Automatic annotation (TrEMBL), chains A, B, C, D:
EC code: 6.3.4.5
GO cellular component annotations of the record: cytoplasm
Pathway terms, separated by semicolons: Amino-acid biosynthesis; L-arginine biosynthesis; L-arginine from L-ornithine and carbamoyl phosphate: step 2/3
Enzymatic reactions: L-citrulline + L-aspartate + ATP = 2-(N(omega)-L-arginino)succinate + AMP + diphosphate + H(+)
This protein's encoding gene: argG
Binding site for L-aspartate: 119, 123-124
Subunit: Homotetramer.
Protein name: Argininosuccinate synthase
Amino acid sequence: MTDRVVLAYSGGLDTSVAIPYLAKMTGGEVVAVSLDLGQGGEDMESVRQRALDCGAVESIVIDAKDEFADEYCLPAIKANGMYMKQYPLVSAISRPLIVKHLVEAAKEHGGTHVSHGCTGKGNDQVRFEVGFRNTNPDLEIIAPARDYAWTRDKAIAFAEEIDLPIEQSTKSPFSIDQNVWGRAVETGFLEDLWNPPTKDLYSYTEDPSLGNAPDELIISFESGKPTAIDGRPVTVLQAIEELNRRGGAQGVGRLDMVEDRLVGIKSREIYEAPGAMVLIAAHEALEDVTVERELARYKRQIDGRWSEEVYDGLWFGPLKRSLDAFIDSTQEHVTGDIRLVLHAGSIVVNGRRSSHSLYDFNLATYDTGDTFDQTMAKGFVELHGLSSKIANSRDRESK
Amino acid sequence: MTDRVVLAYSGGLDTSVAIPYLAKMTGGEVVAVSLDLGQGGEDMESVRQRALDCGAVESIVIDAKDEFADEYCLPAIKANGMYMKQYPLVSAISRPLIVKHLVEAAKEHGGTHVSHGCTGKGNDQVRFEVGFRNTNPDLEIIAPARDYAWTRDKAIAFAEEIDLPIEQSTKSPFSIDQNVWGRAVETGFLEDLWNPPTKDLYSYTEDPSLGNAPDELIISFESGKPTAIDGRPVTVLQAIEELNRRGGAQGVGRLDMVEDRLVGIKSREIYEAPGAMVLIAAHEALEDVTVERELARYKRQIDGRWSEEVYDGLWFGPLKRSLDAFIDSTQEHVTGDIRLVLHAGSIVVNGRRSSHSLYDFNLATYDTGDTFDQTMAKGFVELHGLSSKIANSRDRESK
Amino acid sequence: MTDRVVLAYSGGLDTSVAIPYLAKMTGGEVVAVSLDLGQGGEDMESVRQRALDCGAVESIVIDAKDEFADEYCLPAIKANGMYMKQYPLVSAISRPLIVKHLVEAAKEHGGTHVSHGCTGKGNDQVRFEVGFRNTNPDLEIIAPARDYAWTRDKAIAFAEEIDLPIEQSTKSPFSIDQNVWGRAVETGFLEDLWNPPTKDLYSYTEDPSLGNAPDELIISFESGKPTAIDGRPVTVLQAIEELNRRGGAQGVGRLDMVEDRLVGIKSREIYEAPGAMVLIAAHEALEDVTVERELARYKRQIDGRWSEEVYDGLWFGPLKRSLDAFIDSTQEHVTGDIRLVLHAGSIVVNGRRSSHSLYDFNLATYDTGDTFDQTMAKGFVELHGLSSKIANSRDRESK
Amino acid sequence: MTDRVVLAYSGGLDTSVAIPYLAKMTGGEVVAVSLDLGQGGEDMESVRQRALDCGAVESIVIDAKDEFADEYCLPAIKANGMYMKQYPLVSAISRPLIVKHLVEAAKEHGGTHVSHGCTGKGNDQVRFEVGFRNTNPDLEIIAPARDYAWTRDKAIAFAEEIDLPIEQSTKSPFSIDQNVWGRAVETGFLEDLWNPPTKDLYSYTEDPSLGNAPDELIISFESGKPTAIDGRPVTVLQAIEELNRRGGAQGVGRLDMVEDRLVGIKSREIYEAPGAMVLIAAHEALEDVTVERELARYKRQIDGRWSEEVYDGLWFGPLKRSLDAFIDSTQEHVTGDIRLVLHAGSIVVNGRRSSHSLYDFNLATYDTGDTFDQTMAKGFVELHGLSSKIANSRDRESK
């Protein structure tokens, strides 16, 4: 049987050239699979046709926007998913979805191999390949950049050599990955950590110093899921899209960070994720009102570990599933409204209301109606501090 | 021997009236102790004199600003101390220092009792009293608000009754605690969580929407300690003061949150802590560059626990000391410069440089000079994902 | 309406005297509720009648053995529930079940108060009372020992005074709590930590040095639940009972420990829990074979926290529920057989088999059939150690 | 310059043959380094001479027994170092010490390469190689088994071919690693997890069912370090050796487990570590008496992580160092005596005494002298359970 390589196809130069290249290297056929994850840009039908023009025997386009929002972005909202407390896992949550569709395409179209365009020093190769191994270990994996030392220069030369029917893009200085959850940019001059980002790096967000009028909005959640903005019902996808627009207009969602990669090195990254950051800020504020203290304290650790697992490419791992079970069990009452102001790069929560609130006015107030029995505090203080009191007495005596 | 009550004295109405009141209730004498923690406002000599005028047998004023900055704020910087990921522990880190000085004053001036003005439903009573128990369990503790059901109305009536020589302040609607590390405000109308804060709540910060020009600055650290701003050497205290000014001018450092109190209730709090927030943001950014990945991941958990222990009044507890030992051991190489822009309420890091950096340009770059051996990745990916691959295969088979 | 006190009734002297005493102190009526948790000893009908004889208006006996085994012991097995890595939570898991039945009895019989016989310095008062507050905060709680400073001597005097129709037990030197999950003993001479336990302390276990022949057995689990012993199907209750017998005969399950109580003090405790210890040892051994590494590592932390929450009386707390959600999600494949030898106080696992095993002979073997690709290791080692390698190089350079 | 390979030399067939083999493969010279870690067996001088006979240009023997005990075993005692709660890290803590001496020997003797005899599917290759990379990244690493697909059969054939002057051992069915901290055995028939271990597997321990008389002993610690047994002062090494003898005579210290290897597979392992297990049991019992509750709870997590880091070959990593800083800070008061009985495979603690004890008889006793103020408990219980009480009320209302 002829080998068939199922390729994660973006429509760009690299994966376009990869089509004839993979065919040549393997002696097989190439099936191109492209996902619409809300990355915008080119029409997906053009992408599909280009793969065929480049020699793919099949070219499949999948509109996965809602699936991505509902099954990948929503768990990230519930987990307040931020790697290193900052990065909303833009690329990290898209890779397992791409894996899933490539594996399905392989099953349907007789694929024997899967292939991706990632290099051998980034996180995405790990996410792709661990994903493939976890969901279908029988598929052979080809990573041309790593396994064939395939580079952009070689790709351009090869495209010319075989007279590939695609326009020769002038080499962009940026390496970009984007989807509806955010946008990631790397570029050479940022490899000097002292260089600030330049304005042309950004696409999802305006300059925060433009001086637009503040935008106040209300996000409603039901059991951790965003369901309305300013009272208008929304799907998760619509919520992200609207907040990308409104947050982006206020310069909200930019991130300039040095990141600990899974492969052991540190790298400089620029991200834009206005919708993600607004939704997570609102979600955390609602959790503060509706989740009990000890659960909330423990969930912060669980959230941190969830983010590390997802960052590390272990979306399909057993630990990730059990962390999800914990997180899901915490979301039942995360229902209510959060009011925020977006302005000049800032997200400021200034109001919360919830029929599931744990805030008890009568216990909290210092005014009339106070029902908190202050005499209880004396005993609490005494026993709360007893073990450390005994330890300190011992320490003094044994000196 | 006559009882002597050592009172944490602020100079305000409540603790002023407490002086004759405590004398009356205990039949003893009152020693007033006031600390200058950079809270600003009134001259400390006036505070000292007022206590005497109100009947204190001793009135002591201690300039503890540098001690507070060096021994309480600096550990908070090293621990990126934020309770619930947001609150920089403004009051929480000041209580143990006040405790320490009250206990010392009790020793010097024959104190048998210690007293504070906190209510029985807040965190500060716990911090004070656990602090006393931990450092000198022989001292009797009196909390008039809790133990005598002492209220503001009773205090005003008592002040009039005994003709106390202090001006009758019109009752402020705000309950405030402030020091150089920040400012905390509670007030009745915020007890409705849907009400936004009003402008008159703020004192350390300007309105972020004023449209001031951005302020770019460089903070230098040595082993986790801020040592210079824009190249000018500073003490920790000076760093906080300067960043309070510059951050405050940009509206940086405001916080509106619902907080999980130690006594089991949720409460609404407004904070302002520009210096604290800028310093911690810069410190975290420098850690991202200088602390190794696995250590950084674990330190985030340690930092979270440190913040909970300090919030919970266990500054003097054995766990806090061991967490400090961990944290101190991580700071040796947290040395370098962070460039930030403060503007319109936002803190944006846009540059880092360090002679202790773990960022390796040659490993990170995608350009000429790349020394990362990409062939290593294949084996890494395979074994990194092996245990979850085996688990997923088992799961499929056993279905 | 007349007050009705629903009392957790054991049948012993203390709670028998408490019936008329509570009636007297509250001016109300007493409803006695007794649970059969497999504690053995007296016939439950005698217990029921005695309460009536002592003046209870209602006396209810509930056979809760299977409920206890299925809904309280089984979660403890799944969580490998051991406080301080040693104590299988004998009393801690029984309190919430008693609470549940007292609250139900209060609802059915018009109870306005609930009462228990625990002292004010132990854990069980906390477990009872937090349980009541969590499940029905409207019930008033009376703890005679604490609230009325009720002591054993007073109880005996009161029993004589009112001529209570119970035999006067000679005062036992032991304070005992027991159920099918285990037995707890405290006694005066053990309050000197250097004194070893004496033989008369034990009831569930024989002397381990007796020299009985070893007992080899096979325990089968399905999704974490013990379902057969030596091939004979068992309920959870039957499994515990049989292993109490067989383990007890081998002296297995004794524990002599110094325990960190929730109220802040350390105390010396003797436990016997042969069934619990054998089941948890077997369960852990089966998890070692069927749970993936990263999940297993994290579950150890979760198990530890579960044990602390349950020990601390927070069985009904939200965190406990979410920890259960995590744990339950890990048990699906904990299915298989564990062979153990019980002998002279030791539990030794010496065989495991499971159709859900993650052990892969072909990957593990060093003999023919080895399918592990050792060339993968080189890259793994390199990247696994890369971040610490870079850190150590930095450390050497910056010295 | 001629290449020089510094080889971790055990004296056995494999590493003996490796000497001429490495010389042949690299065209260089071989320096043999052998450590006495208390593994017993052959005289070290014979080992040294054999390496020379096999062609080594230098052969170095280092008595590292005390260094191993003081700097590797002692930290493991302080950390209660047990991987998966069971395995006392026998091989894991010896690898970094061997690494250290190989790197030193390379410096002294002009070594350009380092080599070890481990396979490519075990943990030890990772520990060795990450150790080398962390301490001297300039050294080239050769792992013949992995890099040259070198096997035992090839080794025997090569030995015959070159007429190597060593006795041809009949192939032992066991793969063994041993040192004073313990002994590890793997063998083919145990690769079936249902097979029980056979008696010939054991060397450090007698059969526990032999029926020897119990052995009661007292171990004294100072700040976490064992300093005396039965009142006789001991070094750490002497403590381990004596407890290996006395524990071994009682059949104490055997372990049969399925282990999660770092390379992603599960494997069956047999260990014997009587001294290690007795010392850690005693140390934990003393910590129970001398370490404050919150610190003890947190230290259990830290201990678990320490064990994972060491197991995973990251002894020289920055996280390990910071975990040590935490652990060291907890040991100051871990001073006192633990009495244990060793018998028939069991370790039973039955007495503890310490001048640094946190156990307070007057707080713990139920007899005369009780100083615990039980009235404090009411308020404690109320506030300890308040947040979960509020949450449960909310849950009921929102249903």
